[in-house]
Amino acid sequence: TGGVDWHRLREDFPILHQTVHGKPLIYFDNAATSQKPRVVIETLRRYYERDNANVHRGIHELSNRATQAYEAARTRVARFLNARSPDEIVFTRGTTEGINLVAQAWGLQNLRPGDVILLTELEHHSNLVPWQMLAQRVGAKLAFVPVTGDEGLVDERRLAELLAPPVKLFAMVHVSNSLGVVNPVADWCARARQRGIVTLVDGAQSAGHMPVDVQAIGCDFFVFSGHKTCGPTGVGVLYGRRELLEHMPPWQGGGEMILSVDYHQTTFKAPPHRFEAGTPDISGPIGLHAALDYLDGIGRARIWQHDQELAQYAYDRLAAIPGIRLFGPKRGRAGLVSFLLNDVHAHDVVTLADREGIALRGGHHCTQPLMRKLGVESTARASFYFYNTFEEVDRFVEVIRAIQKFFSR
Ligand code: PMP
């Protein structure tokens, strides 16, 4: 696809070149976490070998270098998302922490008893549980836009009805990690904005896989995790529109986020530093910077096309297996497939695939309410990234066929 030598890119990922249970590793668990290219690993090593120091405090050389690299990473993330300013970028621990930050800082300040937080039925627990906790504290309610059938597409008619007062916030997943549904978030955010509803987009599965432009999407908040975008674990990003961040109180207190402190009161820094109390993960953003350079060096539009082609190929080949149940959209899916074999538990599929060197995920994928809605306990999931190949999909389908045969004897 797109004039890229995808096989050659595999050379950038040391971890891919190993055998598991005597078979060449096929890593199809990218929705859980992505692998790291050598340039990210090297960047982390170089930082710890040459520049490690605390940020924003020392005026010695190493502290200056660390601070510069940390803030350069913020600027890089702003460009990655097309934010208007690096001041709109807050470093977090991940998607989960970004959502909790918004729930506590924005939510406690802005939600009143009777207000409604609107979510879709597709949400990951991390875009559900923090809102439940907030709703209980402030006396707000949750409402859900339903999805239909095994395809899991959001019911647009119901959405149009629900997107109205007393809804104050609409928090939506961009790409569903369990079904591969891609939501038209730009359209939804535009309609929410017309009604004065604040929006948050969970970009955990989209940011590293497709071009993302927060201004074009028109959301108020956008969150993602470094570890799913070829970056290190322990770092994530919250984008917040400046107008909102400026009015939000801090959520954690401590060093680094203050202008001046006396024994009884404190004045806080402006965003984004107001939201980064204590020593942050410094190497994380620096490693993430290298990862974003790497991804954009390939081109996210190309990555997205490759993801989608692999997933469609896998979906179509799996669909030919008798007794398989496939979840998620038939066309236009993101780079993953979720499925069940007749009478075989998803965990058995994953265990047997592992013996063939194939890393899949089986379970509820942190979307228990969605699984219940679909009437299943779990699914098996293969999730792809740009370093996966059609040959790997062929091998995977062969193994799934063999598992099906084994159980239907
Ligand atoms: N939302 C979605 C859609 C996800 O796929 C994930 C990770 N599985 C998360 C949120 C949470 O991300 P993290 O665990 O990195 O905070």
TrEMBL record:
It comes from the Bacteria. Its cofactor is pyridoxal 5'-phosphate. InterPro entries: Aminotrans_V_dom (IPR000192), Aminotrans_V_PyrdxlP_BS (IPR020578), Cys_dSase_SufS (IPR010970), PyrdxlP-dep_Trfase (IPR015424), PyrdxlP-dep_Trfase_major (IPR015421), PyrdxlP-dep_Trfase_small (IPR015422). Its EC number is 2.8.1.7. It catalyses: (sulfur carrier)-H + L-cysteine = (sulfur carrier)-SH + L-alanine. The keyword Metal-binding does not apply. GO terms for biological process: cysteine metabolic process. Keywords: Pyridoxal phosphate, Transferase. Catalyzes the removal of elemental sulfur and selenium atoms from L-cysteine, L-cystine, L-selenocysteine, and L-selenocystine to produce L-alanine. This is Cysteine desulfurase.
